[in-house]
Specification:
Length: 198
């Protein structure tokens, strides 16, 4: 199989998985979503690295897409003295993302995808980040991640020395998933049921 054929196969496989994981999320009731999100936040805060985390690059959940809601964990981490950064994508057409200091105000969803835009604009240097909490549509127990397919996180994580923590639902975690050379694997995976170190 040549490289182009393999890439097309991987891309097609990822597309099917995105639909599958998206369908799972859409089927969650409000109560299930709240319960699973709370369990994920508890698992996340239970990681040893979250006891004195320094600077954590988190994400603000797109709740309408049933992205695991980790806002309670963000609040707890700030209460412990952690500095929180959130992702900022200046131009949705370009897979470039910056870390911006979270100032306590809720980000504003931006069209067309409803990606939350932080209210602040003070950038955080990549080498100051100790851990990155990465949203996953799903993934493999080998640390590979299926995202939305836009490439923002893979570009952001390239060369970053921070601990990479992937967040997803247990039902969206498989033994393995298709991957491509530019995909950046996670160091830790967190679901509502467990935390897995790769």
């Amino acid at each position: 199989m040549d490289t182009n054929t393999k890439t097309n196969t991987d891309t097609n496989g990822k597309s099917r998985l995105r639909k599958r994981f998206g369908a799972y999320r859409e089927a969650l009731t409000e109560a299930e979503y709240a319960r699973r999100s709370a369990q994920i936040a508890t698992q996340l805060l239970g990681l040893p690295e979250m006891k004195s985390p320094g600077c954590v690059h988190a994400y603000w959940p797109m709740v309408e897409r049933r992205e695991p809601d980790i806002r309670s964990a963000i609040t707890q981490l700030r209460a412990q003295g952690a500095e929180i950064a959130l992702p900022l994508t200046p131009d949705i057409r370009v897979p470039v993302m910056y870390a911006v200091r979270y100032d306590g105000r809720a980000p504003t969803p931006e069209p067309p995808w409803g990606v939350p835009r932080p209210s602040g604009c003070e950038q955080v240097a990549p080498d100051c980040i100790d851990a990155v909490i990465v949203p996953m549509l799903g993934g493999g127990r080998d640390g590979r991640r299926i995202g939305y397919g836009k490439g923002y996180y893979d570009a952001f994580l390239q060369g970053l020395r921070a601990l990479r923590i992937g967040i997803t639902y247990a039902a969206c975690l498989l033994d393995s998933v298709p991957s491509e050379p530019h995909d950046i694997p996670m160091d830790v995976l967190v679901t509502e049921q467990e935390a897995i170190r790769i």
